[in-house]
Amino acid sequence: MIELLDGFSHEVIAMKVDGVLTSDDYNQRLLPAIETKLKDHATIKLWYELDEHFEGVSVETLWDDAKLAFFHLTDFSRVVIITGRDARMASVLACMVPCPVKVFERDNRDAARKWLTDHEVIE
């Protein structure tokens, strides 16, 4: 399930995912949020937080993710992935996106927020 989070700047879509990520989550929450942000911004930033209760994605969601990548690949200027486990998997996924992506542990949320909002990428 996707929960959209408040408290981020206007060009950021912030979400927390728990349980199993489904196609409905993509179609009813994530895609409308992306389309709305892109009306006001040429590119957007993504805060993608995997909750400690995150179990994975449904098969349909893999297809939705591929479509998202195809149609919105260049719409993201920076992506943060927050995880407490499966950091290696998140790092592999980060290599597939053509914008700066950084993976942070849950206890480093402050550093993640700073990195996401910085205008320059600092590695």
From TrEMBL:
User: This protein's superkingdom?
Assistant: Bacteria
Could you tell me which InterPro entries the record lists for this protein? SpoIIAA-like (IPR021866), SpoIIAA-like_sf (IPR038396), STAS_dom_sf (IPR036513)
What name is this protein filed under?
Answer: Alpha-L-fucosidase
Species lineage, top-down? Bacteria, Pseudomonadati, Pseudomonadota, Gammaproteobacteria, Alteromonadales
